[in-house]
Amino acid sequence: AQKITQTQPGMFVQEKEAVTLDCTYDTSDPSYGLFWYKQPSSGEMIFLIYQGSYDQQNATEGRYSLNFQKARKSANLVISASQLGDSAMYFCAMRDGTGGFKTIFGAGTRLFVKA
Amino acid sequence: GAVVSQHPSRVICKSGTSVKIECRSLDFQATTMFWYRQFPKKSLMLMATSNEGSKATYEQGVEKDKFLINHASLTLSTLTVTSAHPEDSSFYICSARALDRGVMNTEAFFGQGTRLTVV
């Protein structure tokens, strides 16, 4: 069965420093996609980064990078040079072939960036 | 990027009335739309998958007669909360997947969400 686990309910980081948000997953499907979304207080879901299960390299998008360790089934998000505007909820998500390619979400991590 | 518009953003209704929430893909065709419910400080819980021209597929524990989903066109899906009660108060958010893009590696585009309060 699909499962996404985010074990950090909240994280603090100093402005301009890097922070890693943890995510582990479980699936029996060899083909899957991993996503990270940011949800500010306004509620909208903002897509940040994607990693495919067959991708050889870790995904990067600007200040966001995904530390993909397939054997450990982890897909941690690294945010470099944190900014005050990065304070938000962050959700890790997964989609695989089971259940009609629906996306399931982890519990989320609230990130607080301190000035 | 692709835009999904969800309306209304906020709605307050009386207990016993029905509320309709619209989810529109503005610049792409969406064969599949998803409806999620989010409780405060919690994650998104998938309620149902909506496919254009066919009946929605509901997740276990979601009452299909309570949450009516219609996906009449490739750009519009609606969620109707029937006979709403205070326990239905929540944040509802839709997402849409583009017709011409891969199902695995395409991020689903999200609407802005609807905050429903039933009084």
Describe this structure in words.
The complex is a heterodimer of chains A (about 120) and B (about 120). With about 120 residues, chain A is an all-beta fold. Chain A contains no helices and 12 strands. In chain A, strands 2, 5, 6, 10, 11 and 12 form a 6-stranded mixed β-sheet that branches. Chain A has a 4-stranded antiparallel β-sheet with strand order 3-9-8-7, with no helix packed on it. Chain A is globular. Chain B is an all-beta fold and about 120 residues long. Chain B contains no helices and 11 strands. In chain B, a hairpin with a 5-residue loop joins strand 4 and strand 5. Chains A and B meet through strand 5, strand 6, strand 10 and strand 11 of A and strand 5, strand 9 and strand 10 of B.
Which structural class best describes the helix and strand composition of chain A? mainly beta
Number of strands of chain A: 12
* Stretches with pLDDT under 50, minimum 5 residues of chain B: none
What is the first-to-last residue Cα distance of chain A? 41 Å
Total of helices of chain A = 0
Strand-residue fraction of chain A?
over 45%
Mean pLDDT of chain B: 90
Net shape of chain A:
globular
Rounded to the nearest angstrom, the distance between the terminal CA atoms of chain B is 37 Å
General shape of chain B: globular
Number of helices of chain B: 0
* Count of beta strands of chain B: 11
**Helix and strand succession of chain B?**
EEEEEEEEEEE
Computed CA radius of gyration of chain A, to the nearest angstrom: 14 Å
| Rg of chain B, Å, rounded | 14 Å
How helix-rich are the residues of chain B, as a percent range?
under 10%
Largest sheet of chain A: 6 strands, mixed
| Main sheet record of chain B | 7 strands, mixed
Order of helices and strands of chain A: EEEEEEEEEEEE
Tell me the helix content of chain A: under 10%
Uncertain stretches of chain A: none
